[in-house]
Write a structure and sequence with these properties.
single chain; alpha/beta; Elongation Factor Tu (Ef-tu), domain 3; Rossmann fold; 15 helices; 17% strand
């Protein structure tokens, strides 16, 4: 990333980024140029961060890449806005006209400017829906489809910059380098987001075997395939799943394995919250499945203590249920739900606890009830697990619960290095 930004700044500097500035208007224009270049580079980076590149997945992990993707998306949006504002002001001052008078002149006088406006509008829509989905105001299905506009925006940005950018018009080498960057981004995207899942689907022949209702509004999807051990999945990890069934094939969603993988079969367990998840209950035996992954670093590999505490909230039990099937040593499971009917895998968990000799604490109740305000407080955690500070803690649940509970775990004496977190959020 730093090398790419350095090359961009050098290109801008070489083409008069500073030496070519002789008045205020040219200063605004010059800084408009560099923000435009940076925005184009950040947009390509935005696509690459979630292009499923193995080197990035191995070194950073899907969760961290997702956070970087969100931060980079905000930065890209702000830099694009800065570019539009600076260029408009700079050109207006150079011409000696008002900003409002300059806008139609830019649109009509520069080749590729309309493409830039359309591309920017697409990126604004993508940014807006990203904020809305975090707040629960947009369904995942619409957010996923709208995000495809990012790729259209990327193409339009390239067309705009190479057609109108001063750094490219008179510099064929710069144009070739910039085009190569975008072509490389496109090739990696096609290879790892499209070709790799198709090849894996052909090799592994993953299909749905049955769908089981676990609790009201919760279903498990069982799948079998060939050579699943080649994927090297671990208990606690998740895949991005795409089911080739009507109404489902255009979307992929992240769901954790809810049973320890054995090389022959997978199981995921899903709470039915939206159109996509509700349709999972209608999957037929034999439905083909594309699986991208595995992702996630919340596995036994991060363990450093003999004792382990698994803390799950709601459907966040799924990866911890898988881990409970493989963990050895002193294990305690804390399962937080609002109502008894929300408990998933009760019989499985109790059978595992009996067979593998670990303890289960069901924490049931609504925090809005005054008598439940102490639930999962530092004192409550220590009462359930007196030696909590000497354990690794695996925490999984909705983001709001995790954000509330993680400080409580630290207050109970567990160091941050021994708290391993998985937030059940859209990626």
């Amino acid at each position: 990333m730093i090398a790419g930004l350095t090359a961009i700044v050098w290109l801008w500097w070489r083409d008069g980024g500073i030496s070519g500035v002789h008045n205020v208007g040219e200063g605004f224009t010059s800084f408009g140029r560099i923000t435009g270049l940076i925005a184009g580079y950040l947009l390509a980076l935005q696509v690459l961060l979630l292009a499923r590149l193995p080197v990035l997945e191995w070194t950073a992990g899907f969760d961290r890449l997702t956070r970087w993707h969100g931060l980079n998306g905000k930065a890209t949006f702000y830099v694009i806005v800065a570019h539009v504002v600076l260029i408009t002001i700079g050109y207006a001052m150079t011409r000696g006209v008002s900003i409002f008078a300059e806008i139609p002149l830019l649109l009509s006088g520069y080749y590729g400017m309309v493409a830039a406006v359309i591309g920017t509008a697409f990126l604004i829509v993508v940014s807006g829906t990203s904020i809305a989905i975090v707040r629960g105001r947009v369904r995942y299905e619409w957010w996923y489809l709208v995000h495809l506009l990012t790729y259209v925006g990327l193409a339009l940005v390239w067309f705009h910059e190479t057609a109108t950018g001063l750094d490219f018009i008179a510099n064929p080498w710069a144009t070739a380098w910039w085009t190569g960057l975008y072509l490389l981004t496109l090739q990696l995207l096609i290879l790892f987001r499209i070709a790799q899942p198709v090849i894996r689907a052909f090799v592994h022949q993953l299909r749905v075997t049955r769908v089981v209702t676990e609790a009201p509004g919760v279903v498990s999807v069982h799948m079998t395939g060939k050579h699943l051990d080649w994927l090297s999945p671990r208990a606690g990890q998740f895949f991005l799943w795409r089911f080739l069934a009507p109404g489902l094939a255009l979307e992929s969603h992240p769901f954790s394995l809810s049973a320890a993988p054995d090389g022959k079969a997978f199981r995921i367990t899903v709470r039915q919250l939206g159109d996509f998840t509700r349709k999972l209950s209608t999957l037929r035996q034999g439905t083909r499945v594309f699986a991208e992954g595995p992702f996630g670093g919340v596995t036994e590999d991060t363990r450093s203590h003999t004792g382990v505490a698994l803390i799950a909230g709601g459907i966040g039990i799924t990866p911890l249920r898988a881990m409970a099937g493989v963990l050895t040593g002193d294990v305690v499971l804390i399962y937080r739900v609002l109502h008894d009917s929300d408990i998933v895998f009760r019989e499985e968990l109790e059978a595992l606890a009996s067979r593998r000799h670990f303890k289960i604490h069901y924490v049931v109740g609504d925090h809005r009830d005054p008598k439940n305000r102490d639930l999962l407080s530092p004192d409550h955690l220590r009462r359930m697990v007196p030696d909590l500070a000497r354990r690794d803690v695996y925490l999984c649940g909705p983001p709001a619960m995790v954000d509330t509970l993680e400080p409580n775990i630290r207050a109970a004496g567990v160091s941050s290095a021994h708290i391993h977190v998985e937030r059940f959020a859209l990626a």
